Amino acid sequence: MEESSAAWASLNSGVVLSLIAVLCSMVWKNLEVLFFGRRFNRQVRRLAAMVDPYLTVIIAEYDGGRMKQSDAYKEVQAYLQRASCDAGGGVRHLKAEPAKGADALVLSMGDNEEVADVFRGVTVSWQAYSKPPPENGGYWGGRHGRADRRFYRLFFLERERDLVLGEYLPYVRREGRAVMVKNRQRKLFTNLSAEGRDDDGWWGIRMWSHVVFEHPKTFETLAMKPAKKKEIMDDLDAFRNGKEYYARVGKPWKRGYLLYGPPGTGKSTMIAAMANYLDYDIYDIELTSVRSNTDLRKIFIETTNKSIIVIEDIDCSLDLTGKRKKKKKAKDDGDKKDGDQEEEEKDKEGSKVTLSGVLNFIDGLWSACGGERIIVFTTNHVDKLDPALIRRGRMDKHIEMSYCCFEAFKFLAKIYLGVESHHLFDDVESLLGEVEITPADVSENLTPKSDGDNADTCLADLVKELKRMKAEKAQAALAGGKEAAAAAADNDEQEE
Ligand SMILES: Nc1ncnc2c1ncn2[C@@H]1O[C@H](COP(=O)(O)OP(=O)(O)OP(=O)(O)O)[C@@H](O)[C@H]1O
Ligand SMILES: [Mg+2]
Predict the structure, then answer these.
(1) Which protein residues touch ligand 1 with a CB less than 6 Å away?
(2) Going by CA atoms, what residue is nearest to atom 11 of ligand 1?
(3) Which one of 218, 265, 284, 444 would you pick to mutate in the ligand 1 pocket, going by the greatest count of ligand atoms within 8 A of its CB?
(4) Which residues neighbour 163 within 8 Å (Cβ) at sequence distance 6 or greater?
(5) DSSP 367-409
(6) What are the residues whose beta carbon lies below 5 Å from ligand 2 (ion)?
(7) pLDDT tens over the chain, length 496 residues
(8) Are strands 149-157 and 122-131 parallel, antiparallel or unpaired?
(9) Which one of 228, 377, 401, 438 is most buried, counting C-beta atoms within 10 A?
(10) Distance 401 CA to ligand 1 centre (A)
(11) How many C-beta atoms lie closer than 10 Å to residue 311's C-beta?
(12) Could you report the predicted ipTM of this complex, rounded to two decimals?
């Protein structure tokens, strides 16, 4: 009897102990939810730390001074957009920014908000916070350093350390990158510095301002010889997929393109097509607004990966020969009017960017920061450029944009008029062999001007224009011939 009551008592105490254990684990589970969850987290976290210590990881917006927003910060920010918008995340203050698509907004957590996240059954917590800048303003100093420093802090239990550091954080970065790609709006940047807070939350002087890039031109609508077009597209593909190749041969992942040819042959159009093809941003540098080589370097550092950095009309932008240019008469430069030239001269005086500054910008040490950047120069006068500027290695691929050939014309006729053959095509072909017309002029002639215009009228207009150009050329040749004959006669007379 005594034995059975002792067994009964021990069974009872076993049940009670198990009940206590279950209760404790329930309380702990709830504590964990509170700990990482919503409102009471800070206080509860302190309490919980006594039982099971927690660790934190801080991800700063700018590491190594204030030069470049950290990739990890941007990825975490993008990742947390999803967690923040989730009703279970408990975030009450969200920040909204425009996203891809007319009415879309990207929401992210506001300052001092916390959000919980669950990974493989483990709960962690993220907190966004910011700190005022140090007195001296950090790396950039002065007005640049006025921005608050922003951070994300991740809390997790020490026992989850391996899982969080080894698997969760890499997962967050991967997912964040995917969100960034999905929400990415392509941008066209210009180096007009502006003060204010931009998409990345920067407050201060920015070297770049931007608009959303929405140029409709693609390689499908760019007229040029098919073989040449394919060669360029293959080159771009090789560049885009060349990360390992560039790493293997020890070259920074960048490529220079020089587009040269007369006005209206499609150089700017080609840049738009390249950006659309690669899905890259465009940074359009107005060199005359860059005050010094140091500013040029800052401008470069602030460009992001997957971008095309463009300097148009490089020969007109600056004196890049290394010597000071003598003042020229306006008539020397056929393309520019007197007023324009005066303006240019003034701009040049305000800018101290030198040839060596530009060379450094293209392939100096700083140019290797980041990767996946294409640099494009355009010019109407390739012969005016310093050979050092366009040697292979700096401008790796030279592309001549030429006058409209018959193949390019047929391409434009198909796009603009929807015709692949026409009885006027033969006339156009023989005239194109005799006169030089730009794709821009051909496009203009093939554009219907009124409701009554169709393929017949547009092609007839083009033929008329080509004939007019041919007559003008013949007249110019005649006048040139007469002038030469008169000069020769003058010479003869003087000799006699
Ligand atoms: N190869 C082309 N295919 C289709 N359209 C073209 C082509 N070249 C020019 N165009 C048309 O002509 C117009 C002018 O072209 P674009 O501005 O690209 O010339 P550009 O070579 O950059 O001239 P510039 O040297 O004066 O800057 C564009 O609106 C474009 O639509
Ligand atoms: Mg152009």
Answers:
(1) 222-224, 263-269, 380, 401, 439-440, 443
(2) 440
(3) 265
(4) 119, 120, 122
(5) GGSS--EEEEEEES-GGGS-HHHHSTTTS-EEEE--S--HHHH
(6) 267-268
(7) 455 555 556 556 666 666 665 565 555 555 555 555 544 456 666 666 666 678 899 998 876 555 567 889 989 988 887 765 554 455 556 666 655 555 666 666 777 788 888 899 998 989 888 887 766 554 444 444 556 778 999 999 888 999 999 999 999 999 998 888 777 778 888 887 655 544 444 445 567 888 888 888 899 999 998 999 999 999 999 999 999 999 999 888 999 999 999 999 999 999 999 999 999 999 999 888 888 888 888 888 888 889 999 999 988 876 655 443 433 433 344 444 444 555 555 444 556 788 888 888 887 776 777 788 999 999 999 988 888 888 888 899 999 999 999 999 999 999 999 999 999 999 999 999 999 999 999 999 999 888 888 999 999 999 999 999 999 988 888 887 777 777 777 777 777 6
(8) antiparallel
(9) 377
(10) 9
(11) 21
(12) 0.98
For residue 473, the CA-to-ligand 1 centroid distance in Å is 23
Our mutation pick for probing the ligand 1 site, out of 219, 259, 443, counting the most ligand atoms within 8 A of Cβ, is 443
Give the number of the atom of ligand 1 that is nearest the alpha carbon of residue 404. Answer: 1
Where residue 248 falls (left for φ over 0; alpha for ψ -120 to 50; beta otherwise) is alpha
Q: Which residue has the tokens 């110019």?
A: 476
**Whose structure tokens read 């390689």?**
219
C-alpha 408/C-alpha 462 separation (Å) is 14
Distance 207 CA to ligand 1 centre (A): 28
Which ligand 1 atom sits closest to the C-alpha of 380? Answer: 25
Rounded Cα gap, residues 345 and 447, in angstroms: 37
Helix (H, G, I), strand (E, B) or coil at 435: coil
State the pTM of this model.
0.70
Residue 357, both tokens: 């500054």
